[in-house]
Amino acid sequence: MSNHAANYRGIVAMIGGSAFFSCNDAGTKFAAQYLPVTEIVAVRACFALVIALAVIFWRREIAAIATMRDPYLLLRATIEAFIGILVVYCLSIMPIANFTAIILVQPFIMTAVGAIWLGERVGWRRWTAVVVGFVGMLLVVKPGTDAFQAVSLIALLAAVLSLTRDLLVRKIHGDVPTSVIVFSTALFAVPIGVLGSGFEPWTVPGVLPTFVILVSAAFLVAAFVLTVLSFRGTDVSVVAPFRYSIVVFAFVLGIIVFAEIPDILSLIGIGLIVAAGLYMLHRETVRRKGRAVPA
Q: What pLDDT shows up at residue 295?
């Protein structure tokens, strides 16, 4: 069991990472008004690569780059690169708060998959939370109505891939520094973004979108570092609930930067997703304590 200081560090890191992810989303959405999706991914990754490399030199971890041979690290970096393209595309079309809410259905997907395909025992309380969470997602997505956007399905795919990415963090060997994990993520995103130039025409970026992408890259690197740190050496059940703080940041930035105010159904759906997610994490904590008592 991790000590109190480690969990406190993880909580602060998770809230900070959520804030930086939202800032990156806002900057990316702004840049998408001027540049194609894959160009944003490639340019942002180039900036992130330079920033991550500077951090590696500053922390004198250049020799640790050899640890990129870790297969889980390579798989995570590849998945993250494709997530980047999906996220930028979704943000170019969807309100930030709606996109963020869909991404947060990850724990419901994991619970359902574990129960249906892996034979894990899931009690009625957690099944109720799963149902409530998916109802909240349906209120945000609004299938079968005029407000439905097909891009919501792409956001859902990004949520599934993000879940896989986060699980891989715990598989990566502890000797791999956080800076190297971030470096590998940016390194893989560059060629995948460049490949996109064969499918959509790139343009010469102006000063403003270039600056915004640079700032977004800095936010993204900081978010990656903080998120990885939040799960290292901490109790996931204690730290994970604070991931939902990203909804607050996304909601505020959406209003301030883009004047995006979700409709009443979306607000109700977002509330249900957050409430169900927090309750599910609570039940997971109770379940683990119950299993620890007999031991």
A: 47
pLDDT at residue 3 in the model: 65
Residues 6+ away with beta carbon under 8 Å from 54: none
Question: How many other CB atoms sit within 10 Å of the CB of residue 126?
Answer: 22
Residue 228's φ and ψ, nearest 5 degrees, are: -65, -45
What is the DSSP code (8-state) at residue 289? H
Residue 195, both tokens:
């490949």
Written as six digits, the tokens of 43 are 């340019």
Three-state SS string over 200-242 comes to CCCCCCCHHHHHHHHHHHHHHHHHHHHHHHHCCCCCHHHHHHH
pLDDT 10s digits, 102-148: 888 877 877 777 777 767 677 778 888 888 988 988 888 888 777 77
Asked if residues 133 and 283 have their Cβ atoms less than 8 Å apart, the reply is no
Instruction: Please state whether 2 falls in left (phi above 0), alpha (psi between -120 and 50) or beta.
Output: beta
Structure tokens at 248: 């607050």
Helix axes 264-292, 245-258, angle to 10 degrees: 160
Q: Are the C-beta atoms of 14 and 169 separated by less than 8 Å? A: no
CA distances from 151 to 4, 9, 142, 157, 249 (A): 41, 36, 12, 10, 22
Residues of the chain with pLDDT under 50: 1-2, 295
Please state the separation of Cα 161 from the chain's center in Å: 9
What are φ and ψ of residue 183, in 5° steps?
Answer: -60, -45
What's the confidence (pLDDT) of residue 2?
Answer: 46
- Name every residue whose Cβ is closer than 8 Å to that of residue 161 and which is 6 or more positions away in sequence: 79, 82, 83, 86
Give the per-residue pLDDT at 64.
84
